[in-house]
Every structure is written in structure tokens, then in C-alpha cells.
Write a structure and sequence with these properties.
The structure holds 2 protein chains of 2 kinds. Chain A is an all-alpha fold. Chain A has one domain: MetI-like fold (Orthogonal Bundle), CATH 1.10.3720.10. Chain A is built from 11 helices and no strands. In chain A, helix 2 crosses helix 8. Chain B folds into 2 domains: 128 residues, D-Maltodextrin-Binding Protein, domain 2, CATH 3.40.190; 110 residues, Periplasmic binding protein-like II (D-Maltodextrin-Binding Protein, domain 2, 3-Layer(aba) Sandwich). Chain B contains 11 helices and 12 strands. In chain B, a hairpin with a 2-residue loop joins strand 10 and strand 11. The longest helix of chain B is centred in the N-terminal third of the chain and has 16 residues. Classes of the chains: A mainly alpha, B alpha/beta. At the A-B interface, helix 10 of A face helix 4 and helix 8 of B.
Chain lengths: 232, 271
């Protein structure tokens, strides 16, 4: 059976420390971790503003964030491509087909998810924590930290979900990264390539890595969600 | 609004997949992106369907994948351009009745300022040597396609094992790689058909062409009916017969993109 044999080869590739394979895995993690680290603080600030202040256009901003949740990766890729292309407005930055371009795409992709999830977490928090802190004479920034600490499990869940979205994303990375060997080839683009070459073992090996990761992320997610609802 | 009876709903739920499943079978052709993206198949297949009544489903992939599809019995007939791989594939008993249909040619394209100074070089291997010597940026398909295999043969002829920052294996289709070469001011090897289709959008020009080594032969092969008895072998043979017939060959030779002939038919010898 072809499937069984390819799976066997895949396991051999993974556990024999195949250099090509692990380079691809390394690139995938390096890019996505950096993207989520950059996106999280900005998204948190945005979610906080949306949850705690009432201002005109807030409703529209929330609907926009929720709409962008289903933003297709290829659309992000295409838009970014046109912006970063030599003939595009940001062409002089020469970012196209670099890891930075992939990071930008992934930041755009996980941002709405981070905002929506952390907004929900902050909204669910007792406003009293904030108010108590303020009445006890804490400066606003302390009060913010107190509140964020209160809902930390919800925020971690948001980050895990955001990471899950971008580590497995193929459309944008393929378009603006270019799938260049040892440079911008990550797990999803490598799977697309190996499949198009008809060499399935490496594709399956990388698929295993993603599956295992998804499993680990889900375990973490349900753990933190449970902690979040029960309270610390 | 009246509720739709549950039984009708169930019927539809059952029927739709059933109809989709029983759709008339087609002759499945695995071929390379160069024959499909260049518009050749779209131009000649209607005539084949008209004369034989056989509808063709085209699966356009890299040569490596096309041969794999054939070896797995996922298609009935294969039209590709990588003779050494084809011969291995035939010897392994995957196919029968291999026929030489046509050839087209590859060109080396690069940035207009030609940093490696290879414009007008008649020898493709010499041109590759100069690109490597200047460490000029070169984008490789890197996807085991026919074009990629041809490129590797040329590097071998040049006596170079390409690696380093100047050599980027993109792992994407020809159109994407051309766009990438245009963005990065790089050289690349492309088939003439895809080049003609993308030329107007690119800041690149042809620097090397006409070397015999850049010729690119296409063969058609039927999937071995002994290995896969359910393959549409008779239809596949009709397709091969038509492609190599006087009519089919005339149509291939007459196909033009931007007033240039892309494929030279080779199956019928004139006398």
C-alpha cells in the first residue's frame, strides 16, 4: 500500500534527523513565533481599548474585526504581494520573497483572531477588578496589568489559537515568501511542493509535525479555557 | 413558506452525490503545465473530441507528478517532456506505446543589464558557467519538473554543482518563478511558451536561445492496461493516434502565441 509505505518513510525521515526536513520545520517556527510575538501586544492593546472605552465607531470596529476573522490567507498574500512588488508602493523596501514578508502576512492573519478572542476574554472579566484597583489608588497602567492578569488564561488561549492559524497557513507564505529552499520554505509550502512533485513521504512527515502540533495546541487550549472559566 | 417534506430532502441528499458519482467517465490526461498554460491543449483538444467523441480531462502538473499519476493508475495517458525519466518509467512497466509527438525549446532569460554578460552566448552550458562565476542571482524551479530536470542537466554539462546564496530553488510553477526572477533581477530557465505568455509583465529579456541542448522533446504514453485493466486504454490509444496523425500534427504546428510557433510536430515524416 502506497499510503502505509509513505507513512513509514515519513517516520524514518523524521526520526533520522533529516537535515532538509528539520530546516523547514525550524523556518516555520522561527517565522510564526516572531509573527505572534509582534502581533500580540498590539492586538492586546486594541482589544483593551475596544472592551473598555465607548467611542463612536466602536461597533463598526468590532464588526470589522469579526469579519476579518475569516480573511482568506490567499487574499492577504495577494494584497501584500501587490504592495511589496517592485511596481507596488512599498517595492523599494525589497521585502518580497523574504522571511520578513512572510511574517507581515502572518501578523495580518492572526491579528483579528487575537483581537476578537482577547476582547471576549476582557469583556467577560469582572469590571470590578479594574474599579477596585483604581479606587485603591493604583495608577491606570497598574490597573490594566491587574485586569490582564485576571484574564490571563483567556489571553493565552487567544495566542494559542492565533499561532495555530498561522503555523499551518499556506496561501500567504507561498505568495510573498516564494517557497525558496532553506530560506522561505516552511512546513505548509513544503507540503504543497512535495505533493506537486509526487514525493509523498516528506509531505506526510511534515503533515505529522503539523498534526502533532495541532494536538498539543488543542490540549493547551482546552486546559487554559477550563482554567479561564473556573477562575484561578 | 411551506416546509420541504423530509422525504424529498432525504432524496436530494442521496441523489446529488449519486449523480456526481456517476458522471460520465472521461479520458484522464496527465501532462505538464507547459502544454496546458501555453493554450495548446485548449486549442487542439476540441478537434479531438469532435472527431472521436471522447472528452479529455487535463491534469496539468510537473513531469515528476504526471509520471507518478500514471504509475498509480490515476490517469489513462501521459504527455510529458523528460526522456530519461520517461524511459525509466516505461522500463518499470508503467506504460506502453510511447510516441514522439513534438518538441519546443527553452530559453535563458535574465535582467536587461545582463550582470553575467551572457547575452548572445550560443552555448547554454557556457552561459550557466558564467552565471555561477559571477554569482548572479538564479531562480531554479526546484520542483522536479521537466524544466527543472533540464536545468540540472545543463548545470552538469557546465561542471557546476549549483549552491549558495545566488542560487534559489523556488519550488513553484514556471509563471511564479518568472515573476520572481523579474522581481529579484535574476536569471532563470523557462520554456518559450510560458515566457511568451508572461513576457509583457516582466522586466526581463531572452539572453540565450537556439542551443540544441535547449530543445525539449514531448512524448505521449498510454498507461499499461495490463497493470491497470480499468484504465481507458482504447480511448488512450485513440488519443495517441490522433496526436500523431496528420491532422493532429498539423494543428500542433499551426498553433501560435503572439504570432510565434511554440511546438514543432515530429511524429509524421514528410516526403
Amino acid at each position: 500500500m502506497e499510503l502505509v509505505q509513505a507513512c513509514k518513510q515519513a517516520l524514518v525521515l523524521l526520526f533520522s534527523g533529516n537535515a532538509d526536513l528539520w530546516t523547514i520545520i525550524g523556518i516555520s517556527f522561527a517565522v510564526s513565533v516572531k509573527a505572534i510575538v509582534i502581533a500580540t501586544p498590539i492586538a492586546l492593546a486594541t482589544a483593551f481599548v475596544l472592551a473598555f472605552f465607548r467611542f463612536p465607531g466602536r461597533g463598526l470596529a468590532l464588526s470589522t474585526v469579526n469579519t476579518l476573522l475569516s480573511l482568506p490567507a490567499v487574499v492577504v498574500g495577494l494584497t501584500l504581494y501587490l504592495l511589496l512588488s517592485r511596481s507596488g508602493p512599498l517595492g523599494d523596501l525589497r521585502l518580497l520573497f523574504t522571511q520578513k514578508a512572510m511574517m507581515i502576512g502572518q501578523i495580518v492573519l492572526c491579528f483579528p483572531l487575537l483581537v476578537a478572542w482577547s476582547h471576549a476574554a476582557i469583556e467577560a472579566a469582572e469590571r470590578s477588578a479594574w474599579e477596585t484597583a483604581i479606587t485603591l489608588g493604583a495608577p491606570p497602567w497598574r490597573a490594566v496589568l491587574t485586569l490582564l492578569h485576571e484574564v490571563r488564561f483567556g489571553l493565552i488561549a487567544a495566542v494559542i489559537a492565533g499561532f495555530g492559524r498561522i503555523i499551518s497557513e499556506v496561501g500567504s507564505s507561498m505568495m510573498v515568501g516564494g517557497n525558496i529552499l532553506n530560506y522561505t520554505r516552511n512546513i505548509p509550502t513544503a507540503i504543497a511542493l512535495e505533493t506537486s512533485k509526487g514525493s509523498f513521504a516528506q509531505g506526510i512527515a511534515l503533515g505529522f509535525v503539523l498534526l502533532f502540533l495541532a494536538f498539543a495546541l488543542n490540549l493547551g487550549l482546552s486546559f487554559f479555557q477550563r482554567r479561564g472559566t473556573l477562575g484561578p | 413558506m411551506k416546509r420541504i417534506p423530509r422525504s424529498l430532502f432525504a432524496l436530494v441528499l442521496l441523489l446529488v452525490p449519486a449523480i456526481a458519482w456517476c458522471a460520465p467517465a472521461l479520458l484522464r490526461l496527465a501532462t505538464t503545465t507547459s502544454t496546458d498554460n501555453s493554450g495548446l491543449l485548449g486549442d487542439i483538444l476540441p478537434a479531438f473530441t469532435k472527431s472521436t467523441g471522447i472528452h479529455v480531462q487535463v491534469i496539468a502538473v510537473g513531469t515528476g507528478k504526471a509520471l507518478r499519476l500514471g504509475a498509480n493508475g490515476d490517469v489513462d495517458v501521459v504527455l510529458v517532456h523528460a526522456p530519461p525519466s520517461e524511459e525509466k518509467w516505461m522500463t518499470a512497466g508503467n506504460g506502453v506505446n510511447r510516441r514522439y509527438v513534438m518538441y519546443n525549446d527553452f530559453v535563458i532569460v535574465g535582467p536587461p543589464n545582463d550582470p553575467a554578460g551572457i547575452a548572445g552566448t550560443k552555448d547554454a552550458a557556457v552561459a550557466f558557467k558564467k552565471i555561477a562565476a559571477h554569482k548572479s542571482l538564479f531562480i531554479s524551479r526546484g520542483d522536479d519538473s521537466g524544466t527543472n530536470k533540464k536545468e540540472m542537466i545543463l548545470w552538469k554539462d557546465a561542471g557546476i554543482q549549483p549552491s549558495g546564496h545566488w542560487y534559489r530553488a523556488a519550488g513553484q510553477g514556471m509563471g511564479k518563478v518568472l515573476a520572481m526572477a523579474g522581481e529579484l533581477d535574476a536569471y532563470t530557465l523557462t520554456d518559450r511558451g510560458t515566457w511568451l505568455a508572461y513576457q509583457s509583465k516582466l522586466l526581463l529579456k531572452i539572453v540565450v536561445q537556439g542551443d540544441k541542448r535547449l530543445f525539449n522533446p514531448y512524448h505521449v504514453m498510454a498507461v499499461n492496461p495490463d497493470k491497470y485493466p480499468d484504465a481507458r486504454y482504447m480511448d488512450a490509444m485513440q488519443f495517441i493516434a490522433w496526436l500523431t496523425s496528420v491532422d493532429g500534427q498539423r494543428m500542433i504546428g499551426a498553433y501560435r502565441v503572439k504570432n510565434q510557433q511554440l511546438f514543432v510536430p515530429t511524429a509524421v515524416t514528410h516526403h
